[in-house]
Amino acid sequence: MFTTKRFIWVALVLACCWTASAATGSAASGLKVSRSVTPRQQYRRQLDINSMDQIASSTNTNDTQSLIQVIQNVLDIPNLRDPNVGTWATQQYGQLVWWDDGAGGDNTQFPGWVNSSGQPFPFNPTASVPQDPNTGGWQKIPGELLCSVDGFVWPNNQPLFTMNISLAVTDEQYQGQPVVQPFYVSDPSTYYNNPELVKRVIITLPGKPRDTWKYVNLMNNILMYIYANTDRYQVYPGEVVIMAPIVLNQDDQAAGGVESNWLAYSHSNWQMGGSSVTPPLQNGSVTFFGALDKMVDAVMDRKWFPNVKQVVIAGHSLGGQASMRYALLRKQRRYESNVKFWIGNPGSWTWLTNSTDTQRPNWGPTNLNGEDCTADIDTWPYGLGGNTSKITKYGRSRVLANMADTLALYRWRHVQYALGLLDNGAGDTHCQAQYQGYNHLHRGSDFALALAQMPGGWPSNHSLNYVSRVSHQDYDMYATSMDFLFLRDFNTSFPDLYGHHTPKNKTAPEPAYSGDHAWEAPIYRTVAWIILVVCIVAVIGSLVVCQYCFKANANDWDRDYWEYDSKRRLL
């Protein structure tokens, strides 16, 4: 029989379950953001070019939920998660510029860019530089890069860029010469020998082959088109300077392309802020990010270009990896509000939240051939955790001292991510990169989704640019990102973060927890767990007290009568 005592016990048990469930839910919501914010769409059976065009046109927003939906639409593209699918860089899938020029489309003018006569706008080809046929090392770095076509703003055979070897990166000398990071910079004739005209400087980073001359030339081709259309863009000749560090390594040194006092790095370690290997220095090597600091400082101290307003650091492919990691670790300067970063189709990313392999978006990659790197997926340059001794010495101490400030400063920066919707190339083939995704587009979208799901949502100063009908093509990615690279905030100089003699505020302007994520701050996590523990203790205590407060609702006489009545009925 269902007695009063049993009823109370059942009610208390149900109350315990409900309370524990509610408290656990509150605690869990404070511990992490759900990885499935909106339902995934079903995979379509084939690539839909029109759908890709629609995706590319829908990223002009900073609304977190809208961007999450766009990113998930990309992640639902058929075969994006298949490491064995063939390339999408074909005319069949609508690629705008076909690779028929022997340079991956990078010697072909962007479609639709025409001159006043309706003919394709002139395209200045990249200089030919001799290489070692075995190692690929550069044998001789050109001292100047010329205009070699007619129809530009500048006449044929005029220097467009000259090499500058005056940037000393350390007080130490080598063999009586300053140790320098060589770089290309727009020839003074391109700003009419009047540095006061310059309003914007773009520092472009090379790709894996370290062919810096190619990247300044590509960026300059876009600039020439802008200069030819001043009525449309309101940017006039002489107002933009393009620079680029000449990145060299030990292969170039062996091939004869490195002077004794020039910095050279180990293989591709420069893209992660790695240290120089030559020249040998008594006071320690110089990091690539430290050399970039020197370049940016030389621009923004306004002694060289008195009226410069913005500097943009841009990198595609391996240069995109360098741009992303430099933006993450760069030391804060007073002029930081006027530094922008463009990150195009990087092969891998530095993950912003430490995790185990089961929490990475591409858990259990199928293309590892038995390799196990689960202990290192958070180790630099793939993350900020794991073996933290691997973090470049440029930023290691600041990350270890306060990682929250490092992340908050990165989220505050002006950053654009540009991803080609046909770029399903493998990119970084290391095991750690596979946990971020199988290809450029997959990894970039996973990173963008994780960024949007961090506390604080999508950063207000970041933008995402999905580019339709373009694969892993440097020039086309630059051209479709023209607004961010050349035009946005062109005549704007934001206030300094602090004065020349005022100690900087180490706290980034954007709070780590705000808006819809305010309840995920650590204080609320602690409160949620306290509520859970108090509720469990209260329920257990109530059950114990009830054992003594409530007696059976039947006495001995009642039991004797029920027993007698039951026997009588059986007879």
From TrEMBL:
Keywords from the UniProt entry: Membrane, Signal, Transmembrane, Transmembrane helix
The UniProt record lists the keyword DNA repair: no
Segment forming the signal sequence: 1-22
Catalytic activity: a monoacylglycerol + H2O = glycerol + a fatty acid + H(+); a diacylglycerol + H2O = a monoacylglycerol + a fatty acid + H(+)
Domain of life: Eukaryota
Transmembrane segments: 527-550
Name of the protein: Fungal lipase-like domain-containing protein
Species name: Malassezia sympodialis (strain ATCC 42132) (Atopic eczema-associated yeast)
